[in-house]
Amino acid sequence: MSQTYDQLIAHQQKLSAVHATMGLLGWDQETMMPPGGLVYRGEQLAQVASIAHELATSPRIAEWLAECESDIDLISDPTSGSAVNLREIRRDYDRNTKLPAELVAEVARVTSAAKAAWQQARKADDFGMFEPHLQKVIDLNIAQAECYGWAEDGEAWDALAEGYEAGMNAAYVQGVFGPLRQRLVAFTNELLDNGAAPSAKLNDIKLPIDAQMRYVRMVSEQIGFDYSRGRLDVAAHPFCGGTHCHDVRLTTRFHEDMLTDALGSTMHEAGHGMYEQGLPADKIGQPAGDAVGLSIHESQSRLWENHVGRSRGFWQWAGPKLGEYFGDAVAGAGGDDAYAACNVVQRSLIRVEADEVTYHLHILIRFELERLMARGELGAADVPEAWNSRYHDYLGVEVPGPAAGCMQDIHWSMGSIGYFPTYTLGSLYAAQFYETACNQLGDVDAMFARGEFTPLRRWLNENIHALGKTYRSEALCEHVTGSKLSADPFMRHVEGKLRPLYGL
Amino acid sequence: MSQTYDQLIAHQQKLSAVHATMGLLGWDQETMMPPGGLVYRGEQLAQVASIAHELATSPRIAEWLAECESDIDLISDPTSGSAVNLREIRRDYDRNTKLPAELVAEVARVTSAAKAAWQQARKADDFGMFEPHLQKVIDLNIAQAECYGWAEDGEAWDALAEGYEAGMNAAYVQGVFGPLRQRLVAFTNELLDNGAAPSAKLNDIKLPIDAQMRYVRMVSEQIGFDYSRGRLDVAAHPFCGGTHCHDVRLTTRFHEDMLTDALGSTMHEAGHGMYEQGLPADKIGQPAGDAVGLSIHESQSRLWENHVGRSRGFWQWAGPKLGEYFGDAVAGAGGDDAYAACNVVQRSLIRVEADEVTYHLHILIRFELERLMARGELGAADVPEAWNSRYHDYLGVEVPGPAAGCMQDIHWSMGSIGYFPTYTLGSLYAAQFYETACNQLGDVDAMFARGEFTPLRRWLNENIHALGKTYRSEALCEHVTGSKLSADPFMRHVEGKLRPLYGL
Fold first, then answer.
1. Catalytic status, residue A256
2. What's the domain range around B83?
3. pLDDT-based confidence at residue A40 (cuts at 50, 70, 90)
4. How far apart are CA B23 and CA B29, in angstroms?
5. Looking at the predicted complex, does its ipTM rise above 0.95?
6. In terms of Cα–Cα distance, which of B404, B388, B396 is closest to B347?
7. CA spacing 20 to 30 A to B197: which of A4, A461, B209, B459?
8. Residues contacting B17, CB < 8 A, separation 6+
9. Which of A18, A24, A36 is closest, CB to CB, to B28?
10. Strand stretches in A32-96, DSSP E
11. Looking at the 3D structure of chain B, how many domains does it have?
12. Chain-chain contact of A34 with B244 (C-beta, under 8 angstroms)
């Protein structure tokens, strides 16, 4: 390797250490920081972020890159660590240097105010309090999109979405989501109009929080999260944080009832965590050693949450342990009750409480609105009506007010337009990966019933985690499954599972 | 204020945010990090430290300083925030830029190896394994001292000690420690030869760790540590960490027996913590808002640990609560038993287990040896003999081997020569501050007996904490007490308390 390349990578490792440190500050803020610490934590994070920004936009990167990109030894094999590093450093550098400093500062100011206003407005269920802030967020996103630019056959939304997922664009997403919407609406109608809903009675039982913690921790350990390189703590909004593959921090939340919520949340974050723990340790601090992006990350969390945690085989193993951990409190409920309770489908207003099927209708609505916002065709004032009419049409529910409607999510208040589709793409990737894994591993449901999760985790390790960022999302999907991303495996998964459960 | 000054302070606040972040990484490593995290944490800390070093040695600081130091508005009042900031930034900048980068890197390499070797050698009780490393540490300290330089009437040790306490030098320390040694030896002999030792039986009782945690937390809250801006966790070697005055993290440790050890440790760290919480919040990130230095910091921890936590008044309040927290387990022991148990004096081998009196003989020995090391008059090979003969002469104990002798402390393996005296100076400052507080506040012992610690904490807040770094240690002592530092208040304190306890 050339000396220039080594300098570039050393610089990148320093930047990565700062990002890892910001990750730890973020984790600490949500789990350990005393309330008074908030006064200065924002300032502290802003200072560290400004150091990261200086490192990420250093003109030396451009000089190093220019030299390395003409070095045939470094780039001849596009899947080599050096080629992947150069490709990703180039992408990030070009993007990071496209925004003028004044716009970056303006975004920070506007989103800081917008987030505070959103919290107040949501509490008051008053969209008028949030509207001017949302309009500024939309305007600033359009301004940013213009700085970033987009392909000739693309549109403004693409420039924003690129910040969350390399290569994601509206036409591609629409190509996947369009047919999916019709199938989801039809399948939801089929289940709810003709089927008999399984019982959710398990989630009415109140169970002690400390026993729930022991139970979900046991499950996360059994499925393969490595606690010698990780932790599990409580946070209001669960996330997977930490600093690198040797130190991954899960969080979860508990209610006295709703055991399957705590378990699903924990398995979801453990899925993220096992991806992080499975990244190539010899490439820490290099882009080649990072996760592919948000969609593939979400595929790992949803695979464990939905394909494993909501399967019959899983509950054949985990069900009999309910009595062991909760004793009489669980009132004799077992695996069948849990399997039923975590597979109830219903039309609902709130995305984060939605089931495995209708969830994606929530996402599709947000994607449609964001695309219009980015084009300048939907202003803040018209968002509630556009939202409510789609909830009526796609989900069949009437939105009572903006708190349970277009102000329910934090994303727009934080300035994020283009993020939501990664959630649904994640579910589709999860289903396609899972189908391939089943074809290659045999009867995984029977393995789950025996508490054997290692074959599946190993398969994910070898086929996805260990590759780091070698391939981008779509290319990884083809590399692993032999096919382009499609909604078919996902529909096969939910239809195959839910029709029998609903007696259809 | 001039624009140049504002730029200098903004730069300093960025540096301070990085230091605060390193503080949090350090705290996390000792309390929360999963064991596997260690693999990369050292690298992460080194990267962040290198960013801090770049910021601290930026040539722009020299330019800004030169301009500000000739601005009469900024420096006319030496106790103004601007004058204090300029004084301290100048001191740090000059010191930080004096070591060549190769020497800094060599120190990092040598101390990393020395620390590992020390751990092995101490376990094996084999000085030979550590000796070559200690010799390198001594040689590198001498090389560093030569880079830093020292006053014409000073010596090499001064240049090293300056790194731990601004203005500390061997002649000054010797002037205080010389007479102290004779008085300590004489007083120890008086107590142990003629007195009757109080009973330590309370510390034989085994008490549940969770009840101990509740008890020491209650005490730390009552004496004034603010948990809305702080935490208390467990660590193998207790310390006070965190990031700034709004977020202070105490740690403590527990044994099943030895309640007074856990309590003393907690009150000690809470003393550090209350100092941090009392620093001027409007000067976060500026030197003027920082603690004075290690000696004054130690004065605050030892004041609460020894002058409060080992007083009769304190135990008149805390004693009756023993039954409340420990029930029958405490076997009817009360305040008198605790007061006795935490005031036993004995000749011993291990510094960190030593009592309030003999502790300082341990420190004096280390200071004498370090002074010789820095002069090049004591090589590593001769350290055990020099150590053992002083333990025989001053403490009257025979050292059985190096693990319980000259290898008991981590400091030298970490490259720290010149640190130890700050512990004893801290005790002397504590006694002198405390005597002044008693003169001004009246019968504080009676207040303690009623659980009233606020008057003392407020007095410390107003007279010491809120001043930040306005005065250096010696000047602060004169400002607060009206006198130069002396060993007299400390000797009055221990003699006045222990003679009656020993029936003398």
1. no
2. 3-161
3. confident
4. 10
5. no
6. B396
7. B209
8. A43, A44, A47, A48, B285
9. A24
10. none
11. 1
12. no
